[in-house]
Amino acid sequence: MHHHLTVGQTLRIFLFRYLLVVSIKLCNFATLLIIKTKPALNPLIEKHIVLEDIDPVMFYGINNAHLQMLKSLFPKLRIVARDNVIRLLGDEEEMAKVEEDIETMRKHVLKYNTISDEDILDIVKGRQTKADAVKGVLVYSISGRPIKSRTVNQQRLIEAYEHNDMVFAVGPAGTGKTYLSIALAVKALKEKTAKKIILSRPAVEAGEKLGFLPGDMKDKIDPYLQPLYDALEDMLPAVKLQDMMEKHIIQIAPLAFMRGRTLSDAVVILDEAQNTTPQQIRMFLTRMGWNTKMIITGDMTQIDLPREQRSGLREALGILQGLEGIGVVHLGDKDIVRHKLVTRIVNAYDAYDREKAEEKSFKQNTKNESINKD
């Protein structure tokens, strides 16, 4: 018995199948749409900042110079300004940075009724400096390498500098005491907590006279002070360093040239202080003026003074240790950050020195015993 479908039933079946196919296609399209519009890992967001209580023209600068500078400092963001509204489009992390900087700039204009390109750079760098401080970075080398403490005692040196006006850093070669001290001074200059850096060494080889050496003043001094230049050249671009030296913002001079000067608004470093006489170091330490920090570095195992001459550093440590405002940090073998072989060499020489001292002591005792017998 055959069932013949009516026209109405046939239409209903056709319509059902048609709707089923359309539904499946719609579902597939919707799935595709969801996949395509799935948010990226760093979705672009848009924000509007209203510049309240200030003249936007002053904020943007002549011919929008300040705005252009802001754009160049944040190349990952789209920054568009109209009237007193700044529209930002971009990555959320970058957005947070520029928002903070724009607010600091707005407050600056509100307070001083002006803002310069230099101010904007200081604001952006200031925020970066705060972030660096969390990571313990003092400054960056010209190759972009972060300069910071690498050992416990190096960190103690940084902390002693932060909490005292005068710091003695004593330890063998390679412990980073001079390099780190210069990094602290460069940081102070960049952050404007000091107006100048003064670096000095006692010119022992020239007997502090320098008269018999050939060449002009710079030629006479330079070879002995070269290690200080090397450290500075690592932290400041050559052109900037040259400019700072010509303007006397950075001064490098032998200890004899400190006589009669009062050193204010500066970070003053006396390197190789073990080679100062008691009179020289006393003269140097009393040169300290207002808003000045002093770092005195030295290595007691490398005294080049005549045998009968006492080391000024040794005497100063004995007299000044424990005084309020003075920090003393001793660095050792574990702080040597040069080649591992340097550590072994230092240790070998230390052992040799101890052996010689014991031998000398033994000979002296034997001599005394023979005198007593006589």
TrEMBL record:
Compartments reported by the entry: Cytoplasm
Species annotation: Segatella buccae ATCC 33574
The family this protein is said to belong to: Belongs to the PhoH family.
Keyword Cytoplasm: yes
Domain PhoH-like protein span(s) in chain numbering: 147-350
InterPro entries with a match to the protein in the record: P-loop_NTPase, PhoH, PhoH2-like
Listed name of the protein: PhoH-like protein
Predominant place of localization: cytoplasm
MF (Gene Ontology): ATP binding
Transmembrane domains' residue ranges: 15-35
UniProtKB keywords: ATP-binding, Cytoplasm, Membrane, Nucleotide-binding, Transmembrane, Transmembrane helix
PANTHER family linked to this entry: PHOH-LIKE PROTEIN, PROTEIN PHOH
GO cellular component: cytosol
